[in-house]
Write a structure and sequence with these properties.
Serine Threonine Protein Phosphatase 5, Tetratricopeptide repeat; four-stranded antiparallel sheet; 27% strand
Length: 1335
Amino acid sequence: MLGIFSLYEKAWSGSPVQFTWQKSLGNFLAVTGGDRAVKIFDRHGQKRNEISLPGNCIAMDWDKDGDTLAIITDKSSTIFLWDAITNKTSQVDSGMRDAMSFLLWSRVGALLAVGTAKGNLLIYNRQTSRKISVLGKHTKRITCGCWSIENLLALGGEDKMITISNQEGDTIRQTSVSSDPSDMQFSVMKTDERVSTRESTVSAVVGKRTLFLFNLNDPDNPIDLKFQQPYGSIVTYKWYGDGYIMIGFSQGCFVVISTHIREIGQEVFQAHNHKDNLSSIAISQSLNKAASCGDNCIKIHDLTDMREMYAIINLDDENKGVDQMAWTDDGQLLAVSTRKGSLHVFLTKLPILGDACSTRIAYLTSLLEVTIANHVERELPVTVSVEVEPSFVAIGVYHLAVGMNNRAWFYALGENNVKKLKDVEYLGTVASMRLNSDYAAALFEGKIQLHMIESEGLGAQEERETRLFPADDDKYQILCHALTSDFLIYGTDTGVIRYFYIEDWQYVNEYRHPVSVRKVFPDPNGTRMAFIDDKSDGFVYCPVNDRVYEIPDFSPTIKGILWENWPMDKGVFAAFDDDKVYTYVFHKDAIQGSKIILAGGTEVPYSHKPLLLYNGELTCQTPSGKTNNIYLSTHSFLGNLKDFGPDVLRQMLTQTLMLKRFSEAWEVCSLLNDQSCWNELAKACLHHMEVDFAIRVFRASGNAGMVMSLEQIKGIEDHNLLAGHLAMFTSDFNLAQDLYLASSCPIAALEMRKDLQHWDRALQLAKRLAPDQIPFISKEYAVQLEFMGDYVNALAHYEKGITGNNKEHDEVCLAGVAQMSIRMGDIRRGVNQAIKHPSRVLKRDCGAILENMKQFSEAAQLYEKGQYYDKAASVYIRCKNWAKVGELLPHVSSPKIHLQYAKAKEADGRYTEAVIAYEHAKQWDSVIRLYLDHLNNPEKAVNIVRETQSLEGAKMVARFFLQLGDYGSAIQFLVMSKCNNEAFTLAQQHNKMEIYADIISDTTNEDYQSIALYFEAEKKHFQAGKFFLLCGQYGRALRHFMKSPSTEDNLAMEMAIETVGRAKDEALTNQLIDYLMGEGDGMPQDAKYLFRLYMALKQYRDAARTAIIIAREEQCSGNYRNAHDVLFSMYSELKTQKIKISSEMATNLMILHSYILVKIHVKRGDHMKGARMLIRVANNISKFPSHIVPILTSTVIECHRAGLKNSAFSFAAMLMRPEYRCKIDPKYKKKIETVVRRRDTTETEEPTTACPYCAFQLPECELLCPSCKNNLPYCIATGRHMVRDDWTVCPHFGIFFLMLQTENMCPMCSERINIVDLMKITDCTEYLKLEDEDH
């Protein structure tokens, strides 16, 4: 709260003062103390008059209009009257002999009531000067009273009586009270249904403790309200609102109660506002505020919410505390007296006066102070002290104007100071004023005076210094006006808006509105203007094109409109009323045309008046003389976008698009990164014809098609053509058509309709724009109509489409004519047209239509002409025209037609033709049936059954052979036809079970068991065992296999081993092992069966030991290849199962393989390799006991041939031993003896190669590295050890090779090898690891 002034008079010092505000206007304050005088001050604290009195002032009061102040004193019977208008004091003799004690003006008339110390009453009429004296109204001093709005007078006195009198002084009611009454007031009690607003209740404080309520309508039931003792005594009380009373208590509390009969006695609100004492309370209905004072502070509450503390004023210098308090009627000023005799006046409500020019604002900050500020340009505020309390303020580029009534004061705004220029008097009271850089325009009494602010005094411009609007001959009243840098704009009561161009000093534009124009609000440039008419409707007027746009959803309570001053938001404006600001956007360049949209609303705090809108920030003037900035809810995106979640960002995106803030929308979309948001932004850009920005958005969202399309049109200057393209892109095709037709390229509308296949619209456009395209559009329209089933119009358009000079197009139209003619029932025309037409497809389509219409002969004819033989034959069959079907049959591929034809021929008894037709139809059962039943050709039937595996055919053949007594063949075909039970029964009856058993396969266990039981009964053990094995009865199968007599191939033993392998039963396994070992009969079986058993049981270690034994036996018998194969198969299996291979097996296999390689090398004539392998074998000659002499003989011969003379001598000497000498082949004996006799120790040195493990150089046929002690892998082709840089493997078994140049058979596994398949391996490390693991 702003302190306006304080009064300190020496005469008042030390004692409380009385004061009273001028009623209604509040321009004067009357104050009196103990100095026998009443001083009159104006609202700025200036003393206007001083009324000397013969004694101390007892009471004073202003009349209802505030024109007259009445004063009474304790020493005189005279009433002093001070006239506020003339500033004169007059006296009226009361005629009373006793001292006056009470004075009060009527609230509705010119009546003054005066009470005396002896209880007498005087009613004085100021207008008529009539005096009514009423003696003995009370028996003692009249101390208080009040007038009602019906001019009833209530009085209270020390006689403890309350009287109610009329304006003539007649008592109409009276009542007694328990103690002295005080603070009497008239009011209306709160009721459920208020019948009238008559003030029927008198309230008074009785004895400082009780609030007495006396209802004139119910005088017998007065109400006494008593309060809690801790509250103290009642200081004062005030009625307010709908029957509420606020009561102040001496101990610092104030309480609000309701006078509703059901709520009386209940406290609505209570607050302890002051610590020690409360001295007064005041209520301002215009401010809707309540104040209490006590101690040395004032606390102000809002009546709408008493809990809200509006303001606190501390008077720290007032150590004695505050006393009384009162508001002016308008609530602007609050006066507070203190106990030490001072008085303070505070500004509680400032007239909200303000104006804006561009971003500069001027507003009233005190009664005599105007502040100029520019928050946008960050200029320091400048305060201007003015001479009068202004009723209007206007700000211009360089000037400030303030004024009241018909006078205005002008100030020049410098950089650092403000200088008063002049004051101007106008011909009437100024309602509003507007300034620009040079001129001022004042509106008064329906006229405007436009004049220069600072006259240059140049003669040439004298006529341009001032002008009065309207001219004398214009009979209208100007209701509103505005002044831009170039134009004076005003609106009249006749609805005329006129633009006066100051530069040319003449009118340049005029718009006539149907009703009067109340307010005008041009944008900063004056190119657009919002106005409000007499119906409270809002519009935007564009003088450039003389167009008017209604503002949608325009509230009738709107007080004013502000245009956005931010240069990037030229189309945004805000309309405001007392509670809310509505943001609107004028979309000028939109594809649908210019329009205004409501973007949203923002709540405005109480009593805020908007002055300036800049970039969504609304600067408002407050009642306290300050400004407050509010951000519009429609501009919430201006904050830090990263602080918000997706839902809020989507709302912000909507706001940015409505406001055309595309850069901010881009930022929002970037944060959301949602395709739908990008699409929304792109659509808005197209809507507002922002082509370049739309390209940028579509490029960001990856829509290359739209980017290319927009790139093609962005250079178009024709507004309608460009808008048409954009409307088409947004799928508003009707709008696009209208825009195209209004553009310089109307043909674009036709092209669009054609592209959209809107052929009916396209046809209408073509008649006007391009008649030569009518045939082509007619054809397309006909196709569409045909699809929709409108054949009549389709036929008409097909006929219109025939050009006569475009063959391809005409063929399509003629085809359409043919089809539509048939559909319309003109079959002859349609068929003839289709036959003439070169298209096969047309014939097929027309045939299908005719077929659906049951016109079979014509349909078949067209199918045949179109070479659709299957369809033709099918339709001929429906006509029973078998002759035609027979003609077409060679061309028919459909089995169904052949089947129908075959059935017809069979019915006619023409079986040969029927069989051929059945064969074409792939109906083999019917073919077999005819061959057996009618053509007596069983061989053909049997062949077909074997080829087709037909079940039904097999049954028919089986029945045929059964009739012939050929049971074996019958059983075979019964099995083929899955009739196993019949086949089994037949085999059992005719002792053909062997045949059945040979044929049967893939059947059930029951069938296998039946066969097994049959053979068991017949003592055919092998067959019984075989079928018991198939049905899973392994024990019985093994028993029969072991009983089966031995054969050359001993198949029974093989089957027994397979049985045990499948059974995985230890008992059966032991049973078979005992049998193989000869435990029962003492005749052991061949060891190979035991080996196979172990392999079947996957007991690989036992199988390996057995394999070694078998190989040894074979070796001893001289069967080296067999021994090699047994060991190799075991070696491969162990390797597959990843079981470690014993060194004995590996060594035996290596020696046997070396022996086998000898033959290969010798055969190829490679005697050195053969000799090296024979030396390896001869060194292990004990492994070959059956062929010691031949092997040694071969070793001597090959070593001799290879030049290994010393080795040849060594092995020849061995042969000369007595046990071998006699066994040498005579053919070689002499030669060997010669070798021994003529000893030659020369020896070709064996080449060395690197160890694959450690790279140590060792002889190439050495398989044990003396350095790393590793057994080296050897080549299965040469027998030498492997080397790292020459390595490959057998593709079948993964065994190592060095080279294999001539052989196409693997020496180890005997599988065929293609040399091309052998790939050289560069890194053999993993093979070396595997080899290492094996050993």
